Amino acid sequence: MSLWPVILGVAVGSFLLRASFLSLVDPARVPARVRRVLPFAPAAVLGALLASSLHGPVAEGAAGPGGGLARLGALVLAGLAAWWTESVLVTLLAGMAMLWTLTALT
79: Cβ–Cβ under 8 A, 6 or more apart, which residues? Predict the structure, then answer.
């Protein structure tokens, strides 16, 4: 079996799931509590992805023996850059520069 039908099936399923939520749910019927916390969902998902990248086989195997520490250092610097400058571009550049530097040093 080819991999392409599986990829296409997952893509279509994901699209239909998201489209059904946007087209079938009436915004007026969404509870106020959900509407109040919904803007924080992307930040929560990003935090979960970052936390999971610091631990486990990907963090320990992909970037060498010090890969987890390099990622942690990059995460800390990127967090400080985001807090200080409030710029996405500066945050990405600072985090990637730190990651590449620490990876090269270990």
Answer: none
| pLDDT at residue 64 in the model | 54
pLDDT at 1 over 90: no
**Residue position matching structure tokens 């970037």:** 63
DSSP 1-60: --HHHHHHHHHHHHHHHHHHHHHHS-GGGS-HHHHHHGGGHHHHHHHHHHHHHTSSHHHH
**pLDDT value, residue 15:** 92
| Domain range list for the chain | 1-30, 39-105
Note the pLDDT of residue 58: 53
Decide: 72 and 79 in contact? Cβ < 8 Å: no
Are 61 and 55 within 8 A, CB to CB? no
Cβ atoms < 10 Å from Cβ of 75: 17
Predicted model pTM? 0.53
Which amino acid, 72? L
